[in-house]
Design a protein that fits this description.
alpha/beta; Carboxylesterase_BioH; hydrolase activity; hydrolase; 11 helices; 8-stranded mixed β-sheet; Rossmann fold; 8 strands; Alpha/beta hydrolase; globular; AB_hydrolase_fold
Length: 251
């Protein structure tokens, strides 16, 4: 396990790493998740093996520290991720990021273009104020104190066993602030940033999640939009064969 400081208090962001060829492939999880459980089985596949691979846990999630005074906005997460990549001497990486992690990766690519050579985002939030059915919206409905008091327990009971398994590892305060930041979004929006980032960009959508709003407009800007069959929000878990093929450029 490796780590890097990401704030003035000495808090550490942590990742596990597998050696291999450059450029590195950096895996980033979504809200209330952790990277290794969602991606280790993908990185080990024959068509993807041999690349240097980093599984990064964002602040407040997984194995990373969870400072009370940290903001946990998308920009804060992106800066912490940049600190990890700087400490790991990563440049021009392929960033593979899911859900909230995809939004963080888009912000990272705009703020630190030297770190990103290819961007693969899966069902990333592109617009502020997602539908009320989105997990982030359900968490952000609570005031922070209410979420800490009993909202966290209620959400864990509602989200199902797969998400709850990693959400239990996330700090409740960090989870709420991250969800609130995700719902608030960025300026310009993540969608606008994604359209302008001058690297190869792939947006992965699970077929069971329905059509991606604005897909044609994204395609016109050079984003390759891929719909994966037999998959919902967690494409890498639902259809790992197709997801690995997307990363390998064979889908």
């Amino acid at each position: 396990m490796r780590d890097a400081r990401f704030d003035g208090e000495g808090s550490r962001i942590r990742w596990t790493e597998v050696g291999g060829a450059e450029p590195a492939r950096v895996y980033v999880h979504g809200l209330g998740a952790a990277s290794a459980p969602y991606y280790a089985h993908i990185a080990a596949r024959p068509e993807l093996a041999g690349r240097r691979s980093l599984f990064v846990d964002l602040p407040g999630h997984g194995l990373s520290d969870r400072p009370v005074d940290f903001g946990y906005t998308l920009e804060d997460h992106a800066d912490a991720l940049a600190a990890a990549l700087d400490a790991a001497a990563v440049r021009g990486a392929e960033i593979v990021a899911h859900s909230m992690g995809g939004s963080v990766a888009i912000v990272l690519a705009r703020r630190r273009p030297d770190l990103v050579g290819r961007l693969v985002v899966t069902e990333a939030n592109l617009d502020p104020h997602p539908p009320s059915t989105a997990g982030s919206s359900g968490i952000a409905l609570y005031e922070e104190d209410d979420f800490l008091r009993d909202g966290h327990v209620r959400v864990l009971e509602r989200v199902g066993p797969v998400w709850a398994a990693t959400m239990r590892l996330a700090d409740p305060r960090a989870l709420h602030r991250s969800a609130t930041g995700l719902v608030r979004g960025t300026h310009p929006t993540m969608r606008a940033m994604l359209k302008e980032i001058p690297v190869e960009r792939v947006y992965v959508q699970g077929e069971l999640s329905g059509g991606l709003a604005g897909a044609d407009d994204l395609a016109l800007s050079g984003v390759r939009v891929v719909t994966v069959p037999d998959a919902g929000h967690n494409v890498m878990l639902d259809n790992p064969d197709a997801f690995a093929a997307v990363l390998a450029g064979r889908y």
